[in-house]
Structures are given as structure tokens and as C-alpha cells.
Amino acid sequence: MAEEQHQEVHRSLKTRHLSMIALGGSIGTGLFVASGSAISTAGPGGALLAYVGIGIMVYFLMTSLGEMATYLPVSGSFSTYATRFVDPALGFAMGWNYWFNWAITLAVDISTAAIVMQFWLPSVPGWVFSLVALILIFTINALSVRSFGETEYWLSLIKVVTVLIFLVVGVLTIFGIMGGHATGLTNFAYKKAPFVGGIPTILSVFVVAGFSFQGTELIGITAGESATPEKSIPKAIKQVFWRILLFYILAIFVIAAIIPYTSKDLLGSSATDIAISPFTLVFRRAGLAAAASVMNAVILTSVLSAANSGMYASTRMLYSLSLQGYAPKTFGRVNRRGIPIVALLGTTVIGLLTFLSSLFGERIYIFLVSASGLTGFIAWLGIAISHLRFRQAFVKQGHQLSELRYHAKWFPFGPWFAFLLCVIVIIGQDLHSFATLDWQAIGITYMSIPLFIILYAYYKIRYRTKVIPLDKVDLTKTHHDD
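== Lysine transport protein ==
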């Protein structure tokens, strides 16, 4: 038994950790910086519509994931679900695809951390900060899953408090209590507002909103290390949905009310544009002089938190791939503290190499980043498909729905809605390039799709897998992939 214990991850994440991890996963530079570009592109109404649409879709996806994760809590969840409920080739492709996405994102985040730090220390070379960030994140993840959970909890808390303060200050500014004059809702009817550019621009903002919400599916990955998955996952999902809706929708409403969509300042979309982050602008508008420095610090915590989550998610996915026989056995090794240490080292090396490519091979770096672009949406598609199959198999094999601890809302509308919206967003990524037949842009934007298809086809052809018939789907709970 001691030997087996040695091989498994530890279930030591509490409900508060799970709620904050999922929430923190979705509040990041997407909200703090990129939300401005969404408003300037589609106008206040278009931006709100896109964020509400994606928000609802993410909620349905979370309930789908929640139903499967409470029934079968495993690390690296959705790759395992795709393998067991749909087709091993899909599980293989989804797992590697997701691991690749987060390993690349880790590199992007440590590069961003350096940009943010140079706001205060412009003379220090950026790679120094990136290296420090990478060592710090590696250490947090190598100590124990508790240290990951605690760090994530506090980093996320900082972000949440910032958003709450921002909402209060913003509302006071709209009514003229702070910052001198009331703007009211005049910006919502300014020039072409609330909807600018019609359906194509709203579609393009759906993509921005989708990226902002990526990370919410981390709840599924933490399920394998949750102390009480059947209690904490449903609770976390419920909280996350309301908080995301509250934070994103209200924050965008406040920004749109205070800053007209035509403002040049809303165009920034990366951490370099911190001085013109919509949050900084609103705080400054309210008369808070140190706004830029404070927001910079908050964005630093959110970038570190994203890197921390990314390191955790990719390590657990690699560990899970190894257990399923999709990756070398050595990645399945767990140390005494319950950490898949080889998987952690492997992911760190890839993150480091990607980061080095940003210093020496700008083109390789851009290639890697764009290759991981759509992988979040592909993962969401996989979750929706797995859930539809899980339910069909569950009923087909004579189970009662009352056996499930947690029921996804409005089945089958939820997964179907998520499926269709994901497909629309993936196709609508860059319609402009199709119109002008700009093949290079199309290649860069849609690169994740052929990569995914290659992974899927490789496994399917090599192992001749078939879609598992519904009556053969393995629904046993105590199933260890040997």
C-alpha cells in the first residue's frame, strides 16, 4: 500500500482553493488589459453581448465537466474522459494538445512578467526577471499541491479585491461622486454605440472573450487532487459562474460608461500597454494618482498566477497522459510529496526553451504562440462531445440519472450550445484573411487545427482505434489505467 500511495497525487485541495483557482484562472490580462480592445472594436453593446454569450457557454461547459468530474475525479480529466467515453485517439490528441497549450502559455507569461517588471526597473535586462519568475513558479509547484493551492488562493484574492475596488470606484465615477463630473450612460449612445460594426466585429470579440475565460476548465484538472470532489466541484462551479458574470459584465459596463469606445487608449491589448489599461484609466479618472503603479502590481500578480496555474495544469496533464500510456512511463512518477516531479521538470524545460526562442528566434516564438492559440477552444469542444457521449452511454447501460451526484443543467442544450458556439468562434477567428485570401495569416491563425488533426490521425492509424460503442463505454468508477 505504501508503494501505491507513493505513486499517487495527494488529495489536499480544499473547496476554497478550487473556487479561487477557477476564478483566478479566468481573471487575468484578458480582463485587465484586453477588455478595452473589445469595447473599441465592437462598441459597449457588442462587447457586453460577446462576454455574456461566452460567459453562458462557459457555464454550461463547467456543468458538463462538473457532472463528469464528480462521477470520475481524475487528474488531467478531459483527456481521460475523451479516451473513455468517445475514442482513445481523441483523448490522446486532446491531452497532448492541452499540455502543449499550457507549456507555451507558461513561456508567454514569464515573458510578460519581465515586461511588467521593467515598468519599475527599466535598466535590468528582461530575461533576469523571467528567469526569477520561472524558478519561483517551479519551486511553488515542486513543494506540494497545498503550496500551489495556497499561492493561487492568495494571488487570486488580490485580483478579486482589485476588481471589486474598481467596480466601486467606477460606479462612483459614473455618478460624479469621484472624479468631478458624472458621465452617466451617455457613452452607450455615443456616435455608433452601443453596437459598432455589426455581426462580424461582434464575432471577432467573441474570440477575445473566449481567451479571457480560458482557464476556467482548470476545475476539471484539480478534481483529482481535491479532498472532497463531490462537494467542492459543484460548489466551485456555481460560485465561479456568478462571479465571472458579475466581474466581467460589470467591469466592461463600467469601462464602457466612463471611456468612449472611440478612445485611442482602449486599443492596448498586451502588458506593455499597462499605462493605458482601462483599469488604470478609470482609477486615474477618479483622481487616484498612483493608479498606474498599483495596477501594474496587480497585473504582475495576475501574470504570475496564470503562469502558476499553467505550470500546474500542464504538469498534471502530462502525468495523466503517462498513466493512460500516451506518454513515457517516467512522467507518471510521483515523489513522496505527491508531486509528479518528472512531468514538472519536463514542462519547465519546454517553457524555458520556448522562452529562449523569444530571445533568439522571434519567428519560432510567434509560431509557437499562434500554434497554441485555438487549443483552449478545441479542449472545450472535446468536453462538450465527451459529456454528450457520457450521458448517452450512462442511460444506454441502464443507469438511472439519480445515481449522479451532480447534474449538468439543461442537458442536452448545454453541451450542444457550447459545441456550436465553439465551432462558430473557431471558424470566425479570422474571416478577414479568408476574404482577402491571405494564406500566411490563415496559416498562423488556424495552425492549432491541423496540429490537432495530425495528433488524432497518428493515434487512430497507428492503433486502429474506433469510436467506442455506447454499450461498451467503461463507466466503472475504480478504474486505473495501467
